[in-house]
């Protein structure tokens, strides 16, 4: 955790805007915010499911600063989630609109890799640039820097259901992955709270696990044998390239190499310090999502 002077604590109702309404984290954050807050979710398209009472959705284009300004105006806090390092204009537009709209606090979903001096891949360079842009904005900020999401294991679900197989690059390398629900709870806790201004929080799960070990957990929960098979670098890159751009596939491969070198095995107690409960284990997370693998 990095700390400088924090602002006054804000305990009253707030107007909180969350970008990335159709993504994974922002809806989880919205569900964990106190009902007294006024909540606005933004995305390019409307979410399929209706939100709870007191939550509105605003469709806006991250390429259009005017639509962002309309969505952000009057916000006490803004939760920033972007997911395309090949389109850095989105992040620039969001920060410019936040400044013009007078946003009181920016909470940025970043990545733990920004602290790794060996990480120079596209994704990490993009997140570092995003953090620097927000720090230079003049708006009080908080950085949420998680390790990999436990939900990345859901990419194995089709192969598990079909063949009982998990395919992984470097299956014995360990990552202190974190439950998305823990990221959301921490984010909801700090949004608009001056006690968390100018803080950077590195979030991890309670223990580093390998794909082989995660496979064993899933096997026990499902009550049937699973096999963890190692992918070659070429096979892994081909799988990444089916879902992402070539540049993103290269970045993910670089991240896997750093994981093999032990760069992602360290843990923090930040989730417990901020939420008052231990971070969710992979077994707990998987048990809550077992229907996706069965």
Summarize the structure.
The protein has helices spanning 25-32, 65-72, 89-101, 122-135, 157-163, 180-190, 211-222, 233-243, 246-260, 270-275, 282-288; strands spanning 2-3, 15-19, 38-43, 55-59, 77-80, 106-109, 141-146, 165-169, 174-175, 199-203, 209-210, 227-231.
Structural topology:
Blueprint: E1 2-3, E2 15-19, H1 25-32, E3 38-43, E4 55-59, H2 65-72, E5 77-80, H3 89-101, E6 106-109, H4 122-135, E7 141-146, H5 157-163, E8 165-169, E9 174-175, H6 180-190, E10 199-203, E11 209-210, H7 211-222, E12 227-231, H8 233-243, H9 246-260, H10 270-275, H11 282-288
Parallel strand pairs: 2-3, 2-5, 3-4, 5-6, 6-7, 7-10, 8-12
Antiparallel strand pairs: 1-10, 9-11
Helix pairs in contact: 1-6, 2-3, 7-11, 8-9
Please characterize this protein's 3D structure.
The protein is globular, with a radius of gyration of 19 Å. With 294 residues, the chain is α/β, with parallel strands linked by helices. The protein is built from eleven helices and twelve strands. Helices cover 38% and strands 17% of the residues. Strands 1-10-7-6-5-2-3-4 form an eight-stranded mixed beta sheet, sandwiched between helices. A two-stranded parallel ribbon has the order 8-12. Strands 9-11 form a two-stranded antiparallel sheet. α8 (233-243) crosses α9. The protein has helices at 25-32, 65-72, 89-101, 122-135, 157-163, 180-190, 211-222, 233-243, 246-260, 270-275, 282-288, and strands spanning 2-3, 15-19, 38-43, 55-59, 77-80, 106-109, 141-146, 165-169, 174-175, 199-203, 209-210, 227-231. The longest helix has 15 residues, at 246-260. Mean pLDDT is 94; it is low at 1-5.
